[in-house]
Amino acid sequence: MDPSIHGGVTVFTDASRPLYEVKANLFKGLAHPLRVRVLEVLAASPGSETPVSALLDATGLEASHLSQHLAVLRNYRLVTAERRGNQVSYRLAYPQVADLLRVARALLGEILQATERQLVEQAGLPDLPAQATDGPAAPVASTDSVTSARSAARP
């Protein structure tokens, strides 16, 4: 597989693509929780390599599934691999990947705080009155009865 291609999509090498498309492709590489988890494990050891065995322990994945996710991350150029004997180790390809994860965590924290503030504000609102149950509910016209009424009204 050409390292600049994933699923038939040019990742970073097509200079004719608008920057927003290239950015969207970058986020496609991040678009799986297990890939984000792998990147977080690698980000916890900046500048050092993490053996596949440690990634298996940290993620709980089967080796074949981890291998597939690592291949995607390599194709998106987010990680690099180095083989020493029969041990393969990974590291973040760029320190900015760890920065991106930190920014995402901070953004999610801000969103959560804003949501919590909204819930607290809503908790202070007066209760809405309950719907009256004193009599039969007003009938709701079906589509057939509306169509029949229109037909009958026409000359």
UniProtKB/TrEMBL annotation:
Please list the residue ranges annotated as the HTH arsR-type domain: 15-112
Q: Write down the superkingdom of origin.
A: Bacteria
Pfam families the record matches:
HTH_5
InterPro entries per the UniProt record, alphabetical: ArsR-like_HTH, HTH_ArsR_DNA-bd_dom, Metal_resp_trans_reg, WH-like_DNA-bd_sf, WH_DNA-bd_sf
> What ranges does the record give for the region Disordered, renumbered to this chain?
127-155
Q: Where are the transmembrane segments?
A: none
Question: Which CDD domains does this one have?
Answer: HTH_ARSR
Q: Which GO terms describe its molecular function?
A: DNA binding; DNA-binding transcription factor activity
**Database matches in Gene3D superfamilies:** Winged helix-like DNA-binding domain superfamily/Winged helix DNA-binding domain (1.10.10.10)
Q: Under which name does UniProt file this protein?
A: Metalloregulator ArsR/SmtB family transcription factor
Organism expressing this protein natively: Agromyces luteolus
Q: Lineage from the top down?
A: Bacteria, Bacillati, Actinomycetota, Actinomycetes, Micrococcales
